[in-house]
Hints:
heterodimer, A: mainly alpha, two-stranded antiparallel sheet, 11 helices, globular, B: alpha/beta, Rossmann fold, Peripla_BP_I (chain B), ABC_urea-bd_UrtA (chain B), signal (chain B), Urea transport system substrate-binding protein (chain B), membrane (chain A)
Amino acid sequence: MDMILSQLVAGVSVGSILLLAAVGLALTFGQMGVINMAHGEFIMVGAYTAFVLQGIFGHAGISLIVALPLAFLVGGLLGVLLEQVLIRHMYHRPLDTLLATFGVGIILQQLARDLFGAPAVDVRTPSWLQGSVELLGTAVPVSRIFILGLVIAVVAGLSAMMTWTSLGRRIRAVVLNRSLAETSGISTRSTDRLTFFIGSGLAGVAGVTITLIGSTSPTLGMSYIVDAFLVVVAGGIGKIKGAVIAAFSLGILQAFIEFSTTASIAKFLVLVIVVAFLQIRPQGLFSVRTRSLA
Amino acid sequence: MGELHQRRTRSLRTCSALIAAGALLLTACGARAGEEAVGGGTESCVDVDGDSIKIGFINSLSGTMAISETTVNDVLHLAAEEINDAGGVLGKQLEIVEEDGASEPATFAERSERLIVQECTAAVFGGWTSASRKAMLPVFEGHDALLFYPTQYEGLEASENIIYTGATTNQQIVPALDYLLEEEGAESLYLVGSDYVFPRTANMIIRQWAEENGVEILGEDYTPLGSTDFTTIANQLASSGADAVFNTLNGDSNVAFFRQYNSLGLDAETTPVLSVSIAEEEIEGIGASNIEGQLTSWNYYQTLENQENEDFVAAFQEKYGEGRVTSDVMQSAYNSLHLWAAMVEEAESFDVDAVRDAADATSFAAPEGTVTIDGENQHVTKTPRIGRITADGLIDTIWEGELTEPDPFLETYSWADEEEAEEYAQEADEADEDSDEDSDED
């Protein structure tokens, strides 16, 4: 029983990381049908933002607090730049966006390598996030609890925005039927830009958070991009709710399989399960009922 | 306009077809020349008449392994410079031909062949991953050329065409185990590693050793390369109550592992972690504060106090900057060039057969202490050293073993099941081949 609870906690903690990496992607990929392979590199940029700020402030705690909003801004602006320069020309050619953004990702990786060097850099964890607390009979690192809290805040904020703000309504309208939305006077251009800003900004936030648990290196984004896509696809494209459920399910599944086998087998089995699941439900857990023909 | 464009395209196509055909022809000629060389025994195209002699460096200057291999390339240049300043080898200045292995085993094979057949180098230095070495091995054997390989590795190999200047298992892993048992009193171990040939082979050897010495293995976990989630592994490790951890994780995974380990309240006092893939250059990225006090097993540390090492570190930092660190593999690469020079001087010839005949008992006063080549297996003698990581990111020696003869097949160890080991390594290697392109270190 103890083990079940502790693996449940471990799974939730893994899931929260997955969700953080995926939630911005769920927005841009889900809402706009754009495959942004550079999303992982936006995460990496967020992580390096935290590293740079640590150099400026010297204090791990202060720099983390400043890094969260600043990385959102940096990631968001990068996203808008990418959208403006590249993606807006390719909204009807999803495969082209895949290749183009993949290239952008490689460029960003090399840029990080030139700026910060190829080896990983050390982003220190603030003292108040070190150590662990006892939870349901298992030791849970404080940093993981912080991440879980942050994810809950991000998802709650995002859902509130989508439900109650005019921007949220506009985004949903564009997703449901782009041309009808446009004829109704919604500026789809500015909606696209803003969606990309928020989605990419969330990648930046994810990057800052990931410095708390893993290494900060130019290839950091690559470790998360596949998992993030997995969560988005399994969750059902276009649904934040789907991403939430998929992320935690995958996290918990991974933790339980890993407990009785090994990490490699768990990774493999989770992939097999997702593929099998998509055979039964190609649209994922949830699907957007769209009135457009496409 | 359209027609003109079309015509141009057509002529372009013809051109490229011609070029392709030409390239094919050239390759065919190259291959034939190579075959002849093999058929003719030791006939080589090395030009020994000029004032200089060509040698080849092959390191990954791009791709995932560039992180580690560029440092090896740096010291190789340093060593060549030193040899040239001292008057060269047999009076000839070294002329370096460089190739980028690009972190791809196939590229290593192809480029090393170029170094041998087209550039006609007298010897080649480099390689890092076992995958890159295994890809180059048939090339060097086929052309009867010499490769100097600097990395510590899993052993179970001894090619006449490779001089191994890094540690083999009995000079790094076995002493580390003995240290844990005898000095730390560790009667149970937990094994954590990245999922590829080196950790799996190492852990298989550890299991054989443990059975003989009555040490309990409480867990054996592998994570995919680059994995950053150690929640479950750290939990299992903490609850296993193991006395120590044997760590064969590579690169970035170490950061996540040590953070998770630390946050569970484990530390170097209660459950020490002994790592065999973390050297000076990796510590900064992991964060010295995350790993301070933990143990490593290598033959060389930057902090070694002897004249050769002080000169080596000073020369390296003068050439590449005060902030740079030196590490075990770098030092082995540095030694390899000096050992080759000594072998050539001894043979008084650049001929591969003559140089190889001179290999046995060739010594070099290395920064780690004098190393000597064993002519039987082409490995070198090494002194095992256990180190403790300090707050400033360096490693202090806390235990030093005897100068150890290389024994890549563990023939002198009664507990080692050589057949099982070899079979295992082969299987792991085959299973690995598809996924090898990534950061397959050691």
